[in-house]
Design goal:
Layout lengths: L1 H22 L5 H31 L5 H5 L4 H8 L20 H11 L11 E2 L2 E2 L1 H12 L8 H4 L4 E3 L9 E4 L7 E7 L2 E4 L8 E4 L7 E4 L9 E4 L3 E5 L3 E3 L2 E4 L8 E5 L5 E3 L4 E4 L3 E9 L5 E9 L2 H13 L5 H12 L5 H10 L1 H4 L5 H13 L5 H13 L3 H9 L2 H10 L16 H15 L5 H12 L4 H9 L2 H4 L5 H13 L5 H12 L4 H9 L2 H10 L7
Parallel strand pairs: 10-17
Antiparallel strand pairs: 1-2, 3-8, 4-5, 4-8, 5-6, 6-7, 9-12, 11-15, 13-16, 14-15, 16-17
Amino acid sequence: MKRKMLSIILILVMVISYVQISFAEEIDTEEMKESVSEEPQETEELLTEIENESTAEGAEHDYPQEVQDAGFTYEQYMAILEMPDFPNSEHVMQFRATTATSTQQAVVDKALSYLGVPYLWGGTSPSGFDCSGLVQYVYKHAAGITLPRVTTGQESCGQEVSLNALQPGDLLFFGTRGSTYHVAIYIGNNQFVHAPKPGDVVKVTNMAYFYPSFARRILPSTIAVTSVKLNKTAIGVLVGGSEILTVTVSPSDATNKSITWSSGNGAIATVDSNGKVTARSVGTTTITAKNASSGLSASCVVKVRGDIEGFVRRLYTEGLGRQPDATGLNAYTKSLIADNITAAKVVEEFFTGSEYTSKKATDEQFVNAAYKAILGRNADASGKENMLKALNFGASRKYVLFQMIYSAEFTKQCEKLNVTRGNITLTEARDKNIKVTEFVYYLYVNGLGRKPDTGGLNAYTNSLNNGGSAASVVRAIFTSTEYTNRKRSNSDFVEDLYKTLLQRASDSAGKRDWVNKLNAGTSRLDVIKGFINSGEFTNICTKYGITKGSL
């Protein structure tokens, strides 16, 4: 371009010279020819002279190296120096009246935290900023966004927005697109924060004082919903009762946080627009809170309960034999509704608690009370008999509770109430297999002449439950010091074996034969072996499901 301009100037000079020659009478034709012949050399010399002058003029526009190193052009440098002096804006904190997303607010707060930091050519840290360095640093540390270093690079980021529709965090540019010389961060209420120019500091300025050329939006103006959560994932409510669910939509500054509530089965429970759940009938359904803009949702399982209070009241009146106290009734009812306790656990606490055990009820009284309190009816003859037999054999009362809780009758009651039945854990060996307990019971009663003690009963039943042999248990009983101290005669010993091992009275011939052998010198251990090896004892072991073994 410079070369072209020089050529034009040269042509103008040649035209003027020609005109002067044409009208000069003192110059003849030969001189004109000589003049024309010298023009090429003169032209080249003239071009050289003009270019040198141009270079000299450019030298006059040299500017500080530190400014050049910072990426500023000469034009930008001059524009910055020509910027006006900026007074500090009053009422800086008014920006908070402008609606801003959390990220926008973070950018604004970060920028304002550097008020007073001095201007520094190429400055990109809190020790000193230039305009684009401040913008780059703030966005990196407040929003995690890396922007280009200089204004002309930052111009291409984000999307352009109208200066009449600015939002906090928008970038304001000053100058011609592609060669802007200044950038600021809009903070709301027609104010922006910026690093103005050398000798000044980071400050807030009103747009009325220094109006930008255009703006770019780096941060999204729409904040998407990322999660929807309910305060509870499961609730229990009595028929006719209600409970309010609370929904939390994140982030808190999401653009569209609207929620739509729905019930999986309105006949069981309904829900209104405020999350109020109303129980209609016994059953289980799901309440859902959904955000339409994101499609995200959260659910809560609602269990509508039946007359739980009536069930608890029955445990008081039929189990403990008294009217319920308000505190206890309320506590158990609420716990069952909220699924914080199972029906089985409530039953266990009533019948194994100190209040009931202090009553010192007989086994029959206990069984009658358990039927009425747990199943809500009087005991049937057969069921009552079986329970009393088990208790007589040495099973604990917990075994009786276990049998009732696992009954189809109680299970159905829990389903009707829509409560969790739960279970009772039997920890003692004597309760785990009542047939084995019965076998050991007969060894004690017919062998030692007494009911089993709890420790011995658990020890022997535990052995048999885990594969130990009946033969070893029989030997332990009949060779024990306790049995020896009974000083049973040979006749008594044989009768004891019949009742204990064969669970019947002796027949005359059989008993006479065994007694004669003992009197002739056969050891009692050998007689025990004879009984154990009999087919009759084998059948007894099969009946009880235990391993016979041998001696």
